[in-house]
Structure formats: structure tokens, C-alpha cells
Amino acid sequence: MSIVKEFKEQCETPLRKLREVADAMKVEMHAGLDSEGASRMLKMLITYVQNLPTGDEKGLFYALDLGGTNIRALRVHLGGKEEATSLAKFVSSEPEDFHPPPGRQRELGFTFSFPVRQTSIVSGTLIKWTKSFNIEGLVGEDVVRELTKSMEKIGLDMRVAALVNDTVGTLARARFSNQDVIVGVIFGTGTNAAYVEHAHAIPKWHGLVPKSGEMVINTEWGDFCSIHLPLTEYDQALDAETINPGEQIFEKVISGMYLGDIVRRALLKMAEEADFFGDTVPPKLAIPFILKAYDMAAMNHDSSSDLKVVGNRLRDIFEIHNTSLEVRKIVVELCDIVVIRAARLAAAGIFGLLQKTGRDKVKVGEQQRSVIALDGGLFEQYPKFRTCLESTLKELLGVEAAETIVIEHSQDGSGIGAALLAASHSQYL
Ligand code: ADP
Fold it and tell me: For the segment 222-274, what is each residue's pLDDT rounded down to a tens digit?
């Protein structure tokens, strides 16, 4: 119990700490916008998205969404506002109707969920891999050129019309239906956020001021780190064993890829030092990443009186049999500690972003409404994460400001948003 108690204390996130995290985030955001490399952690990448969807986009567009876990190919039929409900038609075959007329090329929005330094809306070089991706020889290369070469090789006549980060896609998808959307956030395998910035607030932007006066910025906040982050020995050990030690620290305490492994490391220590599972240490407990976020969610939401789900998962994943109710309760407590810390820090990140944009306060005489579009498996499928994130954001904002902020799920936003941006950057416009 002393291991659990110590872990719990180290993971605590009182509001004071969350405010410090948010403030540090805001400071880094300013630095990142100033000049390239001014912030060691927040890249604040210029996306070249100067026009977000209006809701009037029409036509047939494609999207290829390369995430951390899933790759999705989409065909999106945009019908303009009147048909907004039938925005997306996912189909796997390509019947005649979808063939483009002679002389017209298919156009693709390419969602690429890794840090890319864009040089235009259709080009950008990969800065580094994150999550578990590590394909050799691609860092420093233009990802659109690589994709185009591959498409040519297999005889696929398609033009990439927009290269977008998944957070930008999420923002664009939500903006199509609601013009109050200003932030797009992903909590999936990894985590990241994009938001709409005033062009004049980006000193490092030397191009023409966009007509809209706005530019979407990809924060790459997964790489954020601060002395205010409540990190434990388990986080440090986990970080050391990843493909990118010392990097993406915010992501490693928040996102779906890592949460289960933090719990596993705490359990392993308890087994080794306190015989938590009896006098032998179950060998499977030593396998990195064997406990997934969805297992953790299932255990965390087990409402049976004997915590049957927890018992079954411990048996199926770790081959630990006949666990007592007491043991199961402690496992649930560990899941709680880890997911609550993640959700509260996630809320601090959003709060920092709202502070940066001045949307964290109600302005006298203004009826401002700000919508934050969220997507990703962790947000979608881990109710405890979602509800804790929402309630913590309210705590940080206070009652009055909280009424002006709306959190919205941007379903399949990353892919559909990319198709929308392909539409607004079509060569046939
Ligand atoms: P990606 O981030 O790869 O684009 P998703 O947004 O679908 O893909 O997120 C997938 C991630 O979401 C998984 O890696 C996992 O961490 C998390 N996840 C998926 N299902 C669940 C679940 N039921 N409970 C908690 N987390 C989940």
C-alpha cells in the first residue's frame, strides 16, 4: 500500500499545479511562434491552412489518414451545407459513378500525424517520427513527394491537394459545421493540438498576410515538458525504453499508447517488492506495452460487485489467476491514478491554449463562444478520461468562462477534414 500511496501522491494534480503547467505551455507557445527553434519543445508549426472550410464545399474528394495505430482511406462526398448530414460516404469499392470525368484528376487530402515542417499546403519535410513509427530514411524527406512517387509506381492517378496534420483535419471537419470552432485536439495513440492564430501574432511568419488574417498552427504539444509535470519513476523508466527517450514527455503521460504501460510498471514494482501477486513475480508483467489503454478502460469501468472484468483481464493478459477482490480494487485504483492525471493534464493543455488565444475569459459586452473539437480513441472510448477532462477544464475556467466554451466530438475529423481541405485547395477551383 505504501507503493500505491507514494505513486498517488506523486501523480497529484491540484489546480495550482495545472495552472503552472498551462502557464508554462503558454510561454512556450509564444516562444515557438517567435522564431524557429525559440522553443525547445513547442514547434508551433505553420500549416499553410489560411482558409478553413465554410460549409459550402462541394464535390468528391479522397483522404488518406496515417495515424499512429490505424491507416484509413476515405472517399468523401461533399454536398455543401444543404447536404451536410451526408457529408461522409465511406465505401470500399469504386463503382463507375465515382470515376472522375476525362481530364480530371482525383484529389487527395493526406493526413499525416507526425511533426512535419510544411513549406506549402502540399509539401513538407518530416522532422521526426513519434509514437511507435520509425521508418528509416524518411526524416528530412518531403512526405508528399514520397507518397506521390508511391502512387505513381502503382499507377494511381491522384494528386495530393492538401497535406494536413490530424489535429488540423479535426479542426477543419468541425469548422465545416460550426464556425465557432477554434481548436482541434487529438487524444488517441498520441496527443497534439492545432488552433487558429492571428497571422500578426506569428512573428516567424514572413509570407503574405492571408486574406482571412488567420493561420492554423500545429502546436505539436506532445513534445511539451515542464518541471511542473508530475512525473514518477515509472514515467522515467518508460521514457528510457521508448524509441524517442527524452522527447514527447507530455504525450507519454497523457496518450493512449503509454497509459497502460505506466500501470503495468507500478504493478511490476508491487509484485517485485511487496509480493503483490504472491511469492513469485508473474513473468508477463515484465513485458513492455502488454497492457493496452482499452484493457485499462475495461478494468476502470468494471461495475460488477466482484470486479469480474478486472479478474479476467489480469488472467488473460498477465496469466495471473484467482486474484482477490482486494487485489482487483488496487488495480482499479492504479488505473484511476494514471487516467485522472492524464485527463487533468490534458485539460491544462487546453486551458493553456485558451489562455494563449484570450478565450479563457469572458470579455465585457462580447458574446463570444469558442468550440474545441476533439477526437481520438482515448477521448472517444475511455469515458473516465473524457468526463474528468471536461470537469477539470470547467474548474480551470471558472463558472462564467466555462459557459462560453464548448467541447465537441469531431467524429472521424482527421480524415474528413483532410478531404475538406483538399476541396478548398482543389486545382479546379
Ligand atoms: P490514431 O491515434 O492511431 O489515429 P485512434 O484515434 O483511433 O488512432 O486512437 C487509437 C488509440 O486510442 C489506441 O492506440 C488506444 O491507445 C486508444 N484506445 C482505443 N480504444 C480504446 C478504449 N476502448 N479505451 C481506451 N483507449 C482506447
Answer: 999 999 999 999 999 999 999 999 999 999 999 999 999 999 999 999 999 99
CA distance 264 to 285: 7
The span from the CA of 125 to the CA of 118, in Å, is: 6
Q: Which residue puts its alpha carbon closest to atom 13 of ligand 1? A: 189
Beta strand pairing call for 181-187 and 158-164: unpaired
Tens digits of residue pLDDT in 262-284? 999 999 999 999 999 999 999 99
CA distances to 64, 263, 334, 344 from 11, in Å: 38, 12, 11, 11
> What are the tens digits of pLDDT across the range 35-68?
988 998 999 999 999 999 998 888 889 999 987 6
Report all structural domains of the chain as residue ranges with CATH numbers, in order of start: 51-177+412-424 (3.30.420.40)
**Contact (CB, 8 A) for 258 and 300:** no
From ligand 1's centre to the CA of 140, what distance in Å?
A: 28
Query: What is the pTM (predicted TM-score) of this model?
Result: 0.93
Distance CA 153, CA 202 (A): 39
Ligand 1, CB cutoff 6 Å, lining residues: 67-70, 113, 188-189, 256-257, 293-294, 297, 376-378, 381-382
Cα–Cα distances in Å, from 313 out to 189, 298, 331, 333?
21, 9, 11, 15
